[in-house]
Amino acid sequence: MSDFAVLGKYGKCFSTGLKAGFEYRVNIIFSIAGAIAPVVIQTALWIALYSQDSSETMFGFTFVQMVSYTVIAQLVSRLVRTGFEYDVDYDLRTGSLDRFLVKPIGYFGFRLFSFLGDKLVQSLVMGLLIAIAVAFLVFNIGFPLTAAGVFLFIAAMLIAFTLNFLLFWCVALAGFWLTEIGFLFEAVRIVIIALSGGIFPLAVFGSGAARVLNLLPFRFTIQFPTELLCGRIPKVSVAPSFALAALWIFALTALGQIIWRRGIRRFAAVGS
Questions:
Q1: In this predicted model, what pLDDT tens digit does every residue of 174-196 receive, in sequence order?
Q2: Taking Cα atoms as reference points, which of 45, 66, 69 lies closest to residue 55?
Q3: Which residues pair with residue 61 across a beta bridge?
Q4: Which one of 9-23, 71-85, 134-148, 209-223 scores highest in mean pLDDT?
Q5: What is the mean pLDDT of residues 29-35?
Q6: 178 in the Ramachandran plot: left (φ > 0), alpha (ψ -120 to 50) or beta?
Q7: 215-247 as b/e, with b when 16 or more CB fall inside 10 Å?
Q8: What is the pLDDT of residue 63?
Q9: How many domains does the chain have?
Q10: Most exposed of 134, 151, 228, 243 (fewest Cβ within 10 Å)?
C-alpha cells in the first residue's frame, strides 16, 4: 500500500471525527459552560486570598500570574478533555472491535485521527474563548502576552492533545481484562487533571512534589502550555521541556502497543 493511500485512509478518519464534532454542537455548548463555571469560582477564590495585598506572592505566583494561570488552565483542561475511551470500551464489551480488525487501517490510527478531527472543531470554539479571556486579562490586569508565547502555546497544545490521548488510550485498553471500566475513566481523569496543574499550579503541592510531578507526562497536558502562554518558563528550559514531552509520547506509544498486543491476543482467544 502506497504512502498516499495510507494518508488518505487516515485523512478519512480525521474527516469522520471532524464531522462528528460539528454534529455534536450541544456538547460544545456544555463544554463552554463547564469551563466557565470553574474559572469564575477559582478566580473569586484567588481574589479573596490576595485581597489583603495584591503585590503578595503565593507559591511563586503574583496576583496577576495566579489569576491568569487559573483562567487559562481551566480552559485548556476542558479543551484537551477526551471522550473516545468510552467508544473503545463499547467496542471491547460488545465485540464490535472485530469489524475494525478486518479493515485496512489500524484501530489505534482510526481512534487517534478521529479524536484529532473532533478536537479541531472544539479547538476553534475553545480557542476563541481562550483568545477572549486572554484579551480581557491583557486589558484589565496587565497579562504579559507575547507572540513567542502564543506560538509556543500552540505547539505545546498539539503535544497536550497527543499525550492526553495516549494516557486514556492506555487506560481504555484495560477493557481487555475488565468487564466494566466506565467508572474508571472519570476517576483517572480527576487524578490526571490534579497532577497536571488543572486545578491548582503544581507548586501548591510543595517544591519536592512539584519537582517530581514536573518530570511526569501529566504536566504537559495542562500546566506546560499554560505557563508557556503566561511566560513563566525560562527560555533555557523550553527546549528541554519539549524534548521530555516528546520522550513521554514515545514511551506511552510503546506502552500502548505492548498492552494492545497482549490484549488483542486475549480478545482473539476469548472470541474463538
A1: 988 887 787 889 899 999 999 99
A2: 66
A3: 58
A4: 209-223
A5: 63
A6: beta
A7: eebbbbbbbbbbbbbbbbbeeeebeebbebbee
A8: 85
A9: 1
A10: 243
Task: Give pTM, 2 decimals.
Answer: 0.84
Residues 6+ apart with CB under 8 A from 100: 91, 107, 110
| Phi, psi (deg, nearest 5) at residue 61 | -115, 135
Q: What's the sign of the alpha-carbon dihedral 165, 168, 170, 173?
A: negative
64: pLDDT strictly greater than 60? yes
Spatial CA neighbour of 189 closest among 201, 176, 198, 180: 198
Q: Which residues contact 103 (CB under 8 A, 6 or more apart)?
A: 110
Q: What is the dihedral of CA 171, 173, 176, 177, to 10 degrees?
A: -20
Phi/psi of residue 58, nearest 5 degrees: -120, 130
Among the listed residues 22, 113, 122, the one whose alpha carbon sits nearest the alpha carbon of residue 79: 122
DSSP state string for 59-73? TTB-HHHHHHHHHHH
Full domain range(s) for residue 142? 3-271
Cross-strand pairs, 58: 61
User: What is the number of H-type helices and E-type strands within the chain?
Assistant: 11, 0
From residue 201, give the alpha-carbon distance in Å to each of 41, 132, 146, 230.
16, 22, 21, 13
CA nearest 229: which of 121, 119, 133? 133
Given 3-state DSSP classes, what are the helix, strand and coil percentages for the chain, each rounded to the nearest 5?
Answer: 80, 0, 20
